[in-house]
Design goal:
Length: 295
């Protein structure tokens, strides 16, 4: 089983070019499924039936797993078994015709413009780490890129003269995203003064580095955001995507067209971007309810 999972992950990486985080998610989900089967025998694969898969999904439900988690696990299993059938490792796909549980569409949580400004004002400009943090937050809010894309940026991916960054999104798809004047200035401050103090090796290519002088991780960035959100006394639940959601919502609220926002976010399907229009409609209803005399 471990060998087959390894082959499958390798196929996803080489043939389909999926992102590292996606590959790790597939691998984790399939290893947990293997543990549920309680066997590492390849021969056991032929004994897996639709009932086995349904029992596994019911088991996940009994463990209190969220619907989105169960849907993701089923998607991983479907892809895995389709791969095994294609490679002639098994004859029948036990996940065939199994429908994914219906997901409740939850609107993304966003910060108000005032809350974003409070968050961005927290880093200490007198410290190299503070200058770095301000540049990261400004860049994230200015571009709407994912946290994984932010920490993957190299110095050469930023063109401050032309005012844009180049980043690789899901499936290693490259896109160009414009920068605002405040983000450009924050990056200039960081590259000119703070980064040289933080970097230990001149060969380091990473744009944002930690106190050891190496590339900052997603986890490291997440701790930084949580700290500043607490310092800014923002009571809303903050996630790694909060500034990305806020970026998209604020653009649409101020008249940006959906296609442009889709391109900047790197969404393959515009339906993914459309969820932000629901957020802006909700805001309009709130404004109307407060302002209209007969609301």
């Amino acid at each position: 089983m471990k060998k087959l999972i390894h082959e499958f992950i390798n196929y996803l990486s080489v043939e389909r070019g999926l992102a590292v985080n996606t590959l790790e998610s597939y691998g984790r989900d399939l290893r947990q499924y293997s543990e549920f089967l309680d066997t590492d025998e390849e021969s056991a694969l032929d004994s897996v039936s639709r009932t086995t898969i349904v029992n596994y999904l019911l088991y996940l439900q009994s463990q209190g797993k969220a619907t989105a988690t169960i849907a993701r696990r089923l998607a991983a299993l479907k892809a895995f078994y389709q791969f095994l059938v294609r490679e002639k490792r098994i004859h029948d796909d036990p996940t065939a015709n199994l429908e994914s549980p219906k997901l409740e569409k939850r609107l993304p949580k966003v910060l108000s413009v005032g809350e974003v400004e409070r968050l961005l004002a927290q880093p200490d400009a007198g410290q190299a780490a503070g200058v770095r943090d301000r540049a990261m937050l400004e860049l994230l809010y200015a571009t709407g890129i994912r946290v994984s894309e932010l920490v993957s940026l190299d110095v050469t991916d930023v063109n401050l003269e032309m005012g844009y960054i180049k980043c690789s999104g899901k499936g290693s798809k490259e896109r160009i995203v414009p920068l605002g004047s405040l983000a450009i200035q924050s990056c200039r401050d960081y590259l000119g003064v703070a980064r040289p103090r933080l970097v230990r090796e001149r060969e380091e290519q990473a744009l944002f580095v930690n106190h050891h002088g190496h590339r900052l991780t997603r986890q490291g960035f997440w701790k930084i955001v949580k700290k500043y959100a607490d310092d800014a006394k923002i009571e809303k639940e903050i996630t790694p995507h909060t500034l990305r959601h806020s970026f998209a919502t604020h653009l649409l609220e101020n008249g940006a067209d959906l296609r442009s926002v889709q391109e900047m976010l790197g969404h393959a399907d515009i339906s993914t971007t459309q969820i932000y229009t629901q957020v802006t409609r909700g805001r309009l209803k709130e404004v109307y309810a407060k302002a209209h005399p007969r609301a």
